[in-house]
Specification:
The protein is an alpha+beta fold. It has 9 helices and 19 strands. About 20% of the residues lie in helices and about 35% in strands. The longest helix has 16 residues. It binds coenzyme A.
């Protein structure tokens, strides 16, 4: 039977969730009232075969912080699935096309996603803009250098934690390149779903200075205490610090929980200070480094004009969109960076660099220098000076970091 792609009605959200569960190999519960999935239903799309939703996808509206501290509107792609019986027939391709055109129509500057697998999205014009490190520390092998702090860590109940974390996160994410906003409806369930963090093992702490939240951590205690021996592990699930002091104070707390043998954090920034807080930095073991936020420009001109650059300079880049040749994405753009101003305009000058939308997505927040992608033959430069200029312009002050899985 022929499949067709269409948006869903408000009344079809539960069916959408059920279908996405099929795609992920899970039987997802119907959404609770007010759940995030109820938001922006007109941006949710399905492929239909007979009465069945056989592929799903959606955009949420989020914000992305870019170098210089501005935020741009991002279409955040989520719930991408195709039912196992309908795979490799081009349904994802149709859904991605719909989502990108939707982003373009609504004026999103970029499209972003977090991927279940690393091999899917470059063909659709996305590149890896931020990465994460998963780290683990065996407690008995090292000590944390005691912090000089003015405040104190307080344990709070989840409903209190959420209220304190929400505004704190909103402040912190505006200061961190690569961070994406967490919509209001994201918090209640997406933040700590019970299948990810068992309610009886979940703890929330806040670091406060003069009664004001400066840091927040959410962790689970996993592992057991059996026959007089403990194997409990502190699994850090969310970590938000507004200052180096808050960061130090929270790690200090997390590393000094009695009856635990180890601490593990699944998404630390690549430039985390954690190893440098230890008496033996080697004991902060990196268990893995992987892609986190995938990004593609939708409106390249607005995207490149919204950010600042690390120094003054001029460069012309040519961007291709091998997926759908989106007019707003592809073309030649001249970036001019001067102290206090940045411009990006379309041009017909010869390009210094030629790259796909995905390669631009990868360099755009400073997560990888252009010269690395040139070495990997993912972009081309007209000459050596152009490479030097591109590296200097796109250089990041800090490693970009996205915080939020969606
Ligand atoms: C990933 C998934 C959505 C692909 O759907 P699909 O309808 O089979 O994809 P399509 O047939 O449209 O394939 C489009 C292209 O992507 C490629 N592709 C699809 N799945 C891929 C994967 N897992 N890894 C690498 N490439 C993949 C196809 O080979 C095809 O490539 P081509 O256009 O170069 O020939 C589907 O396999 C799925 O639901 N997986 C489980 C849930 C999941 O991981 N979703 C992604 C969440 S971020």
């Amino acid at each position: 039977m022929e499949t067709s792609v269409r948006t869903i009605a408000d009344t079809e959200v539960a069916r959408f969730v059920h279908a996405a569960g099929y795609g992920f190999g899970d039987r997802w519960e119907p959404p609770a009232p007010g759940a995030w999935v109820d938001a922006e239903v007109d941006r949710a799309v399905v492929a239909v075969d007979g009465d069945d939703f056989v592929a799903t996808g959606r955009n949420y509206t989020m914000e992305l912080t870019v170098p210089g501290g501005a935020t741009v509107t991002a279409g955040a792609v989520s719930a991408i699935t195709t039912r196992p019986t309908h795979r490799r027939r081009g349904l994802l391709r149709q859904i991605m096309r719909w989502l990108l055109l939707d982003s373009c129509d609504r004026g999103d500057v970029v499209s972003i996603l977090t991927a279940s697998e690393g091999g899917i999205y470059s063909r659709f014009g996305y590149g890896i803009a931020t990465r994460i490190a998963s780290v683990a520390i065996q407690r008995h092998l090292t000590e944390l250098v005691r912090p000089q702090t003015r405040g104190a860590v307080r344990m709070v109940e989840p409903e209190v934690g959420i209220e304190l974390a929400r505004p704190l996160f909103d402040r912190v994410r505006r200061d961190r390149v690569g961070a994406v906003s967490r919509p209001e409806a994201w918090w209640p369930v997406e933040w700590a779903p019970p299948e990810w963090i068992a309610p009886r093992r979940r703890f929330d702490v806040v670091y406060e200075v003069d009664g004001q939240p400066e840091g927040y951590a959410l962790y689970a205690l996993t592992g057991e205490w059996t026959a007089g021996h403990t194997e409990k592990v502190v699994e850090v699930r969310d970590f938000v610090a507004a200052s180096p002091e808050a960061e130090h104070a929270l790690w200090n707390y997390l590393l000094h929980i009695d009856q635990t043998v180890a601490i593990r954090a699944w998404n630390t920034p690549l430039d985390t200070s954690l190893p440098w807080l230890l008496s033996d930095p080697r004991q902060c073991r990196t268990e893995g480094v992987r892609d986190f936020l995938w990004l593609r420009p939708v409106d390249t001109e607005r995207f490149l004009a919204a950010r600042t650059y690390a120094q003054a300079g001029d460069i012309v880049i040519e961007v291709t969109d091998p997926f759908i040749e989106l007019e707003a994405t592809a073309g030649r753009f001249r970036i001019t960076s001067r102290p206090g101003t940045t411009t990006c305009v379309r041009t017909d000058r010869d390009p210094d660099l030629v790259m796909s939308a995905g390669a631009l997505g990868a360099i755009s927040l400073g997560g990888v220098p252009p010269s690395v992608l040139i070495r990997a033959q993912q972009m081309a430069a007209s000459n050596a000076a152009a490479i030097e200029t591109a590296d200097a312009l796109f250089r990041a002050e800090r490693e970009p970091f996205a915080f939020t899985w969606f």
